[in-house]
């Protein structure tokens, strides 16, 4: 059985002491592809450096809503730097999406206007590069959906660590996006996880760890890594009444499809 972790952060400082050992152990465990996700320009550069060392690791590049600058002027400079980085590195074939990008009103709603501008600018960038987008949304469901309905997204992409929100999942599927499930679907207090998993067709779901965050049960509260992605597959398999192997296979193929990676 092979697994595809569609979103993790091995560029995170929590892996500084044992990054290579952890990545080697992940591959030996059966996770044979993963996406190393950027969330700022610096982290996107580091994520790409790591991905270039392994033929089975790919990366996404972008500025998350929690990493944007304070002013529009600073953002325009940062966007130009991101664009320069992408133009230089696209030939590596390792950058497979723009992300993680989106809106997050949980941590900061006072800069909501700037967040929305940054999100739209990066959708435009993705369209120019013919890449899908990977969306982070937290307590910003309606604004996220409004932007996606009003602004063309050439290659749809993924709602990463998708909030367990019925309206969001319903509308995201209508718009053509994939839904990625992470550790929270295994949490004992995830009251509507089974219902949301049931809403998502097999050909539109991905699995991820969001390592080093959000470790699934039974490892909740510990440093997460991609070896735990099988717990998410097991949860989905239980809800869908299928084997873990079937879920692993379909989510692997889905991730290859959305990120245009050869299986």
Global morphology: globular
The tally of structural domains comes to: 1
Helix content: 40-55%
Report the top-level CATH class: Alpha Beta
Order of helices and strands: EHEHEHEHEHEHEHEHH
For the residues shown, what is the average pLDDT? 97
Q: Order of strands in the sheet with the most strands?
A: 1-2-3-4-5-6-7-8
Task: Kindly report the CATH topology.
Answer: TIM Barrel
Provide an overview of this structure.
The chain is α/β, with parallel strands linked by helices. The protein has one domain: TIM Barrel, CATH 3.20.20.140. It has nine helices and eight strands. The chain has an eight-stranded parallel sheet with strand order 1-2-3-4-5-6-7-8. Strand 5, helix 5 and strand 6 form a beta-alpha-beta unit. Helix 3 runs parallel beside helix 4 (112-129). The longest helix has 18 residues, at 72-89. The model has no long low-confidence stretch (mean pLDDT 97).
Summarize the structure.
The chain is an alpha/beta fold and 263 residues long. It contains nine helices and eight strands. The radius of gyration is 17 Å and the shape is globular.
Walk me through the topology:
Layout: E1 3-8, H1 19-28, E2 31-37, H2 41-51, E3 57-61, H3 72-89, E4 95-104, H4 112-129, E5 133-138, H5 141-150, E6 157-159, H6 166-175, E7 178-181, H7 193-199, E8 205-207, H8 229-240, H9 244-259
Parallel strand pairs: 1-2, 2-3, 3-4, 4-5, 5-6, 6-7, 7-8
Helix pairs in contact: 3-4, 5-6, 8-9
